[in-house]
Amino acid sequence: LEGGISHLPLLDPSMRATAIAPSEWRKRLEAVKNNDTASNTNPRTNYILLDVRNGYEWDIGHFHGAQRPDVDCFRSTSFGISPTEGVASDQLLQVDKEKTDILMYCTGGIRCDVYSTILRQQGFQNLYTLEGGVSHYLKTEGPVKWIGNLFTFDSRLSLPPSAYNHETMIEASMTQQAFDSDKFAKCYVCNSQVSELRHRNCANLDCNFLFLCCENCVMDLGGCCSYNCMTAPRRRPVLPGFQRYKKWHVYRDQKVEA
């Protein structure tokens, strides 16, 4: 994707993944006995659940059985197109391209439409995508097989499933899944469980790393993501709660004494 997408056959429906309605997607996930088998190292696995988002999006919410994508930008996605020797994070490495179902999902479906054309060109035959993405799934099916929140690319940063469908959330709240839905999220600094599924930006203006952080580490590191950033010359003030920083130019010429 580093070279852009203008060369991809995006307008050819036969080159894109087959869209699966949320209800059918739910049935497929529920039919899987072991939701942790999304690995091509298991010879009995005939499907791969592929999260075509960024790693930080996965960190606050994902479908059961989906591995964390090791990218922080969609342009860096390389599932199925890694070098011959491959990388450990490539779930499609050495997968049978004709017999394995690739179940792809993203927030709204656009990234899957784009990336499925790349996989089709690589010879993958059975490509499926969640129609309308996770946001549409949460509206119609609720948080079944989904844990955590959904990352949003706006000032909210994160929305719980109840924001999409309150009625289905009431039903889901009676299941064990509701109690375990946020236990996977860890602080980037100390690896403890976080109380809020919402990212914050590093206070170091020249870092600006997006990360999850517990309340203790926010205070101990002054809103920074590491001890190195604590000594940076252009550090922004620690914001209370999960407020967003203003535009970078507001702090551009600001210096904070270590």
UniProtKB/TrEMBL annotation:
Domain of life of the source: Eukaryota
Any Pfam family: Rhodanese
Positions of the Rhodanese domain: 43-146
Name the UniProt record assigns to this protein: Rhodanese domain-containing protein
Organism: Gossypium raimondii (Peruvian cotton)
Lineage of the species this protein comes from: Eukaryota, Viridiplantae, Streptophyta, Embryophyta, Tracheophyta
